[in-house]
Amino acid sequence: MKKLSARRRHPLAAVVVLLLALAATGGLYAAFAPADKAQADTTSQSLAIEEGKKIYSVGCASCHGVGGQGSSDGPSLVGVGAAAVDFQVGTGRMPAQQPGAQVPKKKVIYSQKEIDQLAAYVASLGAGPAQPTSEQYSPDGADIARGGDLFRTNCTQCHNFTGEGGALTHGKSAPNLDGVDPKHIYEAMQTGPQNMPSFPDTTMPEQQKKDLIAYIQAVNGADSPSPGGLNLGGLGPVSEGLFGWIFGLGACIAVAIWVAAHTAKAKKS
Fold first, then answer.
1. Is residue 32 in a domain?
2. Structural Rg of the chain based on CA atoms
3. pLDDT attached to residue 134
C-alpha cells in the first residue's frame, strides 16, 4: 500500500492518468462512431461525381468548357448548383439543340440516375441550389389562395393568369405550365432559367413556393374546371372580357342588321 501511495504522489501520475483517459475515449469513439455509413456516403458521392464528369465530358464540355468554366457558346456552370442541372437536363432543354434566343424543350435523353450524376459533378464545381426534396414542392399544407396572390404578383406578366404561357420580346417566350413537374417548377424558381428571374428562399421562402405550385396545379391541371368555358389562353379577365364584348356586340349588330333587312317592309321597298 505504501508503494502504491508513493506512486500516486509521483509528479507524472496526473499525466499518466490523462493519457489513459484520452486513450480510452479514443477507443470508445472508434468502436461506436458510424464510420462505415459516413465512408459509404462519401464513396457513393465520389462515384456519382466521377460518373457525372464522364457524362459532362461527352455531352456538355463542348459548349460549357472542359471544367465548366464556360465559353463563347455556353455560360459558366460554376455555382449554378444541382437544381439547375436537374431542371435543364430533366426537362430536355439541355443538351441544347442549337443556340438561340429560346432553348426549346425536347425529348429527355438521360435517365434520372445519369441526371443525378451529372448534377453531382456540376455541384462539385461550386456551391449552388440543391435539388429539392418532395416535401419542399408537395402541395400538402399549401395555401392555394395565397399562391394565387403570389402568382398574379410575380408570374402573370409572362405566364398569363392561369400559367398558359405567352410570347415575349426578341423571339423569347414563357412556356405553358400545364403538365410541368412540380419539382421542375420549384427548381425554376430557385435557379431562374433563361429569361426567368430567380426567386431564392431569401426572396420567396419555401412555403410561398409550395403555395404557388399548388395554385398552378389548381388552375392549370388536367382536372381544372373552366367555369367560363373558352378561356382564350388565360389572358386575364380584362382582356377576355374586352374580346367577348367586342365580338359579342359585333355579333348582335350583325344579327340586328340581318333581321332588319329581311322584314316585310324592307322586302317591299
1. no
2. 31
3. 93
* Predicted model pTM: 0.71
Write b or e for each residue in 71-80: b if 16 or more Cβ atoms lie within 10 A of its Cβ, otherwise e. eeebeebbeb
Do 80 and 128 touch, CB atoms closer than 8 A?
Answer: yes
Domain's final residue, options 94, 125, 156: 125
60 is in an annotated binding site: yes
Identify the pLDDT of residue 50: 94
**Is there a domain that residue 259 lies in?**
no
Who has greater pLDDT, 28 or 109?
A: 109
- Tell me, what's the pLDDT at 27? 74
Q: Quick check: is 112 in a domain?
A: yes
Q: Is residue 247 part of a domain?
A: no
To the question of whether residue 252 is assigned a binding role by annotation, the answer is: no
The Cα-based distances of 132 to 186, 190, 219, 265 in angstroms read: 8, 9, 23, 74
Domain that holds residue 193: 144-220
Grid cell locating 234? 388565360
Has 155 been labeled as part of a binding site? yes
Q: Which of 201, 220, 239 corresponds to the end of one domain?
A: 220
Tell the residue number behind the cell numbers 349588330, with chain if given: 253
Q: Which CATH number fits the domain that encloses residue 79?
A: 1.10.760.10
- Burial track 16-39 (b if 16+ CB lie within 10 A, e otherwise): eeeeeeeeeeeeeeeeeeeeeeee
